[in-house]
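ok trying this again, last paste got cut off
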Amino acid sequence: MEIGHNSGDHRIVARLQGVMVDLFPGSTRRVEMSARTVAEMIDELDRRWPGMGDRIRDTRPAIRKHMNVFVEGERAKLDTAIPRGAEVFIITAISGG
């Protein structure tokens, strides 16, 4: 298991939708890492799979409108703290007409 470079042993689990895994060969639906905020988690995902961060966050920076990030069941922003041991779900928003 690979540990994030900037958050020590603050272990979390990121859960990716299948569509994200399909876009980034070698990625998995369940990713263990160390991160204390949503921004750190996205940085670590991008470090492992370059370009993934751009799919989740825009240049403002903020989470993209078509993406949702949930920490412990609550919608999160980039500065949202992630409790040790938490699961974070990264979900593509569904739209329709």
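PB: full thing came through this time. The mean pLDDT is 91.
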